[in-house]
Structures are given as C-alpha cells and as structure tokens.
Amino acid sequence: MIETTRKRLSQLAMSLGFVLGLSFPVTTAFADVKEQPAADTSILFLQGQEKIEAFRSQRELAPTRLIAPGTDVLELERTLADVSDLTIATSNGTLSLDEYLKEANVAGLMVVQDGKVLLERYLYGNTKDTRWISFSVTKSVVSMLIGAAIEDGYIRSDADLVTDYLPRLQGSGYDDVTVRNLLQMSSGVQWNEDYADPASDVASAPYATLELYDFLAAKPSVAKPGERFNYNTAETNLAGTLLRSAIGNNLSSYLSSKIWGPFGMRSHAYWNLTEVDGGEFGGCCISATLGDYARLGMFALADGVLADGTRVLPEGWMQRSIEPSKGYDGYGYFWWLLGDGRYRAAGIFGQGIYIDPDNKLVVAMHSAWEHADTPEDDSLKLVAFDALSRYFAR
C-alpha cells in the first residue's frame, strides 16, 4: 500500500512538471520510482481526492521555495455573520450558500471586511492551516512585487524597456516592449495560447529560464506594443525573470521581505520553481492558506501601505494597476477588472481573490473545479462574488 502511494505521488509530481513545462526530476523522496506518468495523471485532468491532494501537496510534489512570514501576525477578528438567508441567483435557479459551495467544488471561502472575518468555510478536509495552490493568482502578486521594486528603486518605472533588465532579448520582438506592456499582456509578440492544440506555443514552449528566453526571442512581433491584448503564460514567467534580474534576488525572499513578513501573514507559503534550485514561476503556483490569500487582498486594498504607515508600493500603484488597458478594458496589470472599481486575481480550477474597494471587502477562495476553466464555472463564481458584495454592502 505504501509503495503504491509513493508511485502515485511520483506520477503526480512528473505530470505536474509536464503540464507546467517544468524541467525538473522527481523529488529525491521518489527518485527510485521509474514509471512515467500515464496521460490521465496530468494535474489538469485529476479528479476527486487525487486532485485535492495534489492541490494541497505542492511542497511534496514539486521543487518549491519557502516564503517566510514575520514575527508579527495581522490578526483577523472573527465576527461571523449569519448568512442563512444569503442566496445566489443563477440561470438554473437560486442556490443557498451551502448549495453553491457544493456545486462549485469550493474548498475554502473567506470574506473579510474592515479586517474582520465575516464568513469562513472549509470543505474537503481543509482547515485554516491548509496551503493550496493558487495557479494564476500568483500573477497579481508578481504585479505588486514589480510595484515594490519601483518603490525601492530597482526598476525606474513601468515605462522602462524590458530589454533594460533582460539584455538577452535585445534584437528580438521585445526591443520596444515596456514593463507596462508586459504587465498588460500587450507585448505584440506572437503567441498561441490554445491549450487544445498540441502544436501551440503554450503546449510546446520550454519553461526553464534560459530555454524560455531563447524560445521567446525567436518569436516575431505581430502588433505594436500596447495595442493588442493576447494572454501569454510565458510572458508572466518573463515578468518574474525581469523582476529577479532587477532586484538581484529570488522572488520568494523578496515577497517575504516586502509583503509576507511586514504585512503580517500568518503562515509559511511555498512557490513552485521552474527547475530545481531555479527561479519561481512568474505566472503560477504560490501555495498559501486561505487567510493569507485574504491578507493579500487586504494589502492590495490598502494600496500597499503597512499598518505602521510604511509604503511598500508606489503611491497610487494599485489604482494604476486596475486601469483598463488599451488592448482590453477587462485587464490591468495582471489583474482582471470587473467594473465599478472592483477587481480580482484569478487562477484555474476556481482560485481567486476578489476585491471590492467601495465596501472594503475581500473574498478569498480555494476551489477544485472539475475542469480547469469553463465560461459556466467562471460565470457562477462571479455571480457568487456579486452576491457576497451585495449581501455585505454598507
């Protein structure tokens, strides 16, 4: 039984590497397991308990780097509200909160307003201490870290050229691309993000740092930078590489020193690496507790200012980050925009941090949708966010 479990965990580790374009061997704990993962072990297609275990076991399944908290925790007062009359209207009828949580495979839901926890639910055996993979929620964290690097003087401004920090890309389609263009996914460099096409860029690109450099450098420019929105997973990793180059440090340590420690996150978190001892994925895979997801939302809501008044992000950075881009008015600096000043960080399988500045409300969610991303699932999640906003509106 133990040997079977070890083999299965090894298969999950290798399949995770395949899906995310990783170039690492299995962890040493499973190094003696030789079988290659079957096609149906891809993390994108896991079901049931195996998916849940994979989502909360990244430290065991992949190379990661520690994100350490500080000594002072931002305590969140629990003032739980009676939500028995909360309903979520859908195209198929009205759901109670418990019915929605079951329907949407939610593993954790927290609502925080004015620093007080009004709603906190855990499912599938998760607890307040469960670290859960964020997928693309991490992009929004990288956006804030780039702001911190501007405040610290490591990056002069978001108008700087990408090649100022990544000279290896000089002479490529990135010659006229700015940091702002990169954050808005509007570099103009050719990229095919079709997950159903095995020949697409997202399916064929190598994600180890130097190999990705060379792959992207060979891509032609097909639009003027800043003009056309084109979702590009590789460029979020490029943004992480640019940030590492600017600060001369790894992203986990910088996140720990600028946000995780000073803002008062409660728990250790972990960030997946593109290769063993390599750099972090700029676009994916911080594993953190639900409460610390919520604290990230609170940090954004505070415009990057700590409790003692210390400014981590440039003044107005978050407002700049949620300005609609020219290429697509639903996207800012690695943040999805919802209108009326509301915005969110979103990851596949239903991960999310939703921020409603008018109501000083943050909603954090861990989920395990059946499919990575469908319009129906995302629409239901947005309906739920709207219902929570209205319910807790001032």
How would you describe this structure to a colleague?
The chain has 13 helices and 13 strands. By secondary structure, it is of the alpha+beta class. The protein folds into 3 domains: 2-45, no CATH class; 77-151 and 248-391, DD-peptidase/beta-lactamase superfamily (Beta-lactamase); 155-242, Methane Monooxygenase Hydroxylase, Chain G, domain 1. The strands form 3 sheets. It has a 7-stranded mixed β-sheet, with helices on both faces. A 4-stranded antiparallel β-sheet has the order 1-8-9-7. A two-stranded antiparallel sheet has the order 3-4. Helix 5 (137-152) packs parallel to helix 9 (233-247) and helix 8 (209-217) crosses helix 9.
Topology, pairings included?
Elements: H1 2-20, H2 48-55, H3 58-61, E1 64-67, E2 77-78, E3 87-90, E4 93-96, H4 97-103, E5 106-113, E6 116-122, E7 132-133, H5 137-152, H6 179-183, H7 201-204, H8 209-217, H9 233-247, H10 251-263, E8 269-272, E9 286-288, H11 290-301, H12 317-321, E10 336-339, E11 342-347, E12 351-356, E13 361-367, H13 375-391
Parallel strand pairs: 2-6
Antiparallel strand pairs: 1-8, 3-4, 5-6, 5-13, 7-9, 8-9, 10-11, 11-12, 12-13
Helix pairs in contact: 5-9, 8-9
